[in-house]
Amino acid sequence: IHKLDWFPVYEIPTLALDLTSLKSVRGFSAEDLSFDNEFDLYDYDSQKDQLGLINTYRSKSYLKWRYARNPINQYQNMVVGDGNKILSFAVFKIYTINKKKYLDLVDFGPYDNDAFGFLLENLISYALKMDCVGIKTWAPRHHDSHYVLSKRGFKHELPITYFTVKTLNSSLTSRLKCFSNWWIMMGDSDIY
């Protein structure tokens, strides 16, 4: 890595929730929760970045391009909103390995911690309803979402993803090399 002028920034652990011990499925609150798989129902462009962190700008056009028009995976988007305003969203896919279903939470906007907690509970219920045995995601340890996920029982597990940077502008070097400056999600793994 160093010979190519890449700098190792962080080893991103996968956060996982084992669903095999959870039995009950809570119902959805239809008035506060919706699916927006085409990213048409809400104003995604109005959301602020994550506390000034370096991240992919998750505009409506980006989210449509990345998740609604993806030819490889079929993603769903669960949203908690207030009118046209997004309080939290969760983009996920369900997949099967060795005859077991898993849910990957690949992207989310936890703009409001209470709404994110509510969304997470409904996502867990949905995963159980779909017979998933686990949920996996990434969440920066320096963001409130990591605390919300940990509090709900998510634990670090393999795989670990190595996040590296190559700076093209020397004035940005120190900011780019510190993981606490980044907002990275599973969905970003194919972007950067």
Helical percent range? 10-25%
How far apart, in Å, are the first and last alpha carbons? Answer: 16 Å
Radius of gyration: 17 Å
Poorly predicted regions are none
Figure out the total of helices: 4
**Please, what is the average pLDDT?**
85
SSE order: EEHEEEHEHEH
Tell me the total number of β-strands.
7
**Strand order in space, largest sheet:** 2-3-4-5-6-1-7
Oligomer: single chain
Envelope shape = globular
How much of the sequence is in beta strands?
25-35%
Report the structural category: alpha+beta
Q: Characterize the main sheet.
A: 7 strands, mixed
Task: Give a written overview of the molecule.
The protein has 192 residues and is α+β, with helices and mostly antiparallel strands. Helices cover 20% and strands 32% of the residues. It is built from four helices and seven strands. A hairpin with a 2-residue loop joins strand 3 and strand 4.
List the helices and strands and how they pair.
Layout: E1 7-18, E2 33-35, H1 60-68, E3 76-82, E4 85-97, E5 100-109, H2 113-129, E6 132-137, H3 144-151, E7 155-165, H4 173-176
Parallel strand pairs: 5-6
Antiparallel strand pairs: 1-6, 1-7, 2-3, 3-4, 4-5
